[in-house]
Amino acid sequence: MPPEPASGAEAHFRALEALYAAAPINQLFDSTLEIPASGFARIHFLIDERYYHAAGAAHGTSYFKMLDDAAFYAVNSLVTDRFLLTTAFNLLFTRPLKAGPVTAEGRWVSGQRRVFVAEARLIDADGEEAARGTGTFMRSRVALASLPGYRAVT
Asked: Which SUPFAM superfamilies match (predicted)?
């Protein structure tokens, strides 16, 4: 007997995970999105030398990508009708990232209608925080249901 299709919030979370996987930019990164609960998202990345700057550690673009995505999906887990846009993002680098697994954890902080605030942090393979960031996000005019990657997953 096949499993029951996800419904409500769970269906929304799985559809956001599918949207993340379908985004062309994510073909450049070895990463997966997991949304275990409303207002929380976790992204598992694998950093390798392709993402290094000249001094042999991950370039800041990788940090931004991971932090922004985790915060963004934490907030979009609360918004079921519209795709959100990042309007500002601040980040703090605390240690260099080398090759290996990295986890980005995003959490909704505040906002429920127009502007949302979320924070995120990067945890390296040793369990140490490598960076943290805070962003603001707002609803776009783009309906989630209109995006080909946003689909119900059974």
From this structure: Thioesterase/thiol ester dehydrase-isomerase
Residue 116 lies in a domain: yes
Neighbours of 104 (CB within 10 A): 28
d(CA 133, CA 151) in angstroms, rounded, equals 29
- Residue at 151 is within a domain: no
- The neighbour count for residue 124, using CB atoms within 10 Å, is 20
As a 3-state breakdown, the chain gives helix, strand, coil percent values, each rounded to 5, of 25, 40, 30
CATH assignment at residue 40: 3.10.129.10
Residue 153 placed within a domain: no
